[in-house]
Amino acid sequence: MQARMNNPATLLPGVMEAIQSLIKAAHQGGVPERTLELVHLRTSQINGCAACVDYGVRTAKKSGETDERLATTAVWREAPYFTDAERAALALAESATRLADHPGAVPDEIWDEAAEHYDEEELAALVLWIGVTNMFNRVNVTLRVPAGTNF
Question: What does the chain look like in DSSP terms, one character per residue?
Answer without folding.
Answer: ---SSS-HHHHSTTHHHHHHHHHHHHHTSS--HHHHHHHHHHHHHHHT-HHHHHHHHHHHHHTT--HHHHHTGGGGGG-TT--HHHHHHHHHHHHHH-GGGSTTSS-HHHHHHHHHHS-HHHHHHHHHHHHHHHHHHHHHHHHTPPTT---
